Amino acid sequence: EFGADEGDEDDLAFRPPIVTVMGHVDHGKTKLLDALRSANVVDKEAGGITQHIGAYQVATEVDGDERRITFIDTPGHEAFTAMRARGAQATDIAILVVAADDGVMPQTIEALNHAKAAGVPIVVAVNKIDKPEADPTKVRGQLTEYGLVPEEYGGDTMFVDVSAKSELNLDKLLEAVVLTADASLDLRANPDQDAQGLVIEAHLDRGRGPVATILVQRGTLRVGDSIVAGAGHGRVRAMLDEHGNNIEEADPGRPAMVLGLNAAPGAGQTFIVVDDDRMARQIAEKREARERAAMQAKRRVRRTLEDFMASMEKGETQELNLILKGDVSGSVEALEDSLAQIDVGEEVSLRVIDRGVGAITETNVDLAAASDAIIIGFNVRPQGKAGQMADKEGVEIRYYSVIYQAIEEIEAALKGMLKPEYEEAVLGKAEIREIFRSSKAGNIAGCMVIDGTVRRNAKARVLRDGNVVADNLDLASLKREKDDASEVREGFECGLVLKNFQDIKIGDVVESFEMREIPRG
Ligand code: GDP
């Protein structure tokens, strides 16, 4: 199956490093990727029509040897995290682009955290040094504060001053990538087995049918091979390189555009070569079923503090990853400082992989999903689709407004003594069809219970166009016709009054819910 090289040490050969370019918006990621591609003078075949196939390979000379490097041609860390979230590790090295006139910015730090969480070595490209206001020394100082210490300051991160615009020092940047790879990675693969690798991107082409850009990770892919890619399969009809040239084979580390699949696979999915078409079809069908099941399971799985404890007891986890978000920087710092003082013994480590001020964003959830982290929200809540996404990805967000409470719970979790957790159970929903104004009772909502049961003693929230406009309310009264009721079931009308919330509108939905203790163990 997918994943390991066949044979033994002797069968392995060096393969090029695979590089992703990350960094803050407008710092020059796209321009750098374009410049590196066109500065690829060693490649004699270049000169065709360059195609954006999602990845490309360049060659450079280091100490007299020709060395190849593969670039994933999608700037930004979204692609990087999306792949990791699928369990696909495509990237060996990250180039962190920082504009020398702008310095370190929020997305610089985000990118840095993503790469660190993935254990991917970083090479820093200090870009735009052609600009008069460029200050590469300042960038070095700023990144040192985040643990990326330049070699020239005694650290182990290579910084290269470049200009993507003037194509300055691009060879030095390529050299730094090669040297970093040599120093910290063992990049070898068996080129003589059936090919395996990743789908970088895929689309449906009008003339050519499904077209997938793949990256060979081991083995050699040849025209005529039967492959399964994601839930698609087929025989490789033709392969194109990034210059639009037809190629017959692709060895480890090489990207290629593959024609001949029956369906476009998703980015980050794997491909394998199999014996024949019939087998390819069978595997593709199985994969599709498995993927569907996994998607459903994933919705149910939650990585909670309890999961962490359970796997710690079984000896599986020794590391709790946290992402801290708070309303002001003071509270985030205080939280992090207090966390650092928790004595969890030698075996367990608590890692804060990202922190920041402001609402919990989709990027935070992305990083949490990719690194099995729990998000701590201190006086902040998810923004936009981040909450929905956390539910879908099974990322736990814990909210606190008191620091010692957060510390206590995390400490308790680490020591295996967490207090029972509560889970919200939605009991039912009622739609407001009429509003009666009563000087004594306030606004009475004339409702139809459209789902489940509405209960007098349960909590309630008001939804308007899918948004929560009031939460955690109590009912002042619940009536069926003229009588007080303890609950009203689906299909029946009722009248209810919300405590401390009068701003109801026709069409609002009142959701009745309660908090249930989740039994432990
Ligand atoms: P991205 O958002 O990180 O992909 O940034 P882009 O590659 O789109 O670049 C943002 C802007 O910076 C564009 O206007 C580029 O032309 C400009 N830019 C990129 N690299 C350089 C550089 O080395 N020097 C100068 N002066 N401008 C650059």
UniProtKB/TrEMBL annotation:
Residue intervals of the Tr-type G domain: 14-186
GO cellular component, as recorded: cytosol
Keyword Cytoplasm among record annotations: yes
Family under the similarity heading: Belongs to the TRAFAC class translation factor GTPase superfamily. Classic translation factor GTPase family. IF-2 subfamily.
Role summary: One of the essential components for the initiation of protein synthesis. Protects formylmethionyl-tRNA from spontaneous hydrolysis and promotes its binding to the 30S ribosomal subunits. Also involved in the hydrolysis of GTP during the formation of the 70S ribosomal complex.
GO MF annotations, alphabetized: GTP binding; GTPase activity; translation initiation factor activity
Primary location class: cytoplasm
Entry keywords, A to Z: Cytoplasm, GTP-binding, Initiation factor, Nucleotide-binding, Protein biosynthesis
Gene: infB
Parent-record interval covered: 464 to 984 of 984
Superkingdom field: Bacteria
Binding site for GTP: 23-30, 73-77, 127-130
Protein name listed in UniProt: Translation initiation factor IF-2
Subcellular localization, as worded in the UniProt entry: Cytoplasm
Protein species of origin: Nocardioides daedukensis
Taxonomic placement: Bacteria, Bacillati, Actinomycetota, Actinomycetes, Propionibacteriales
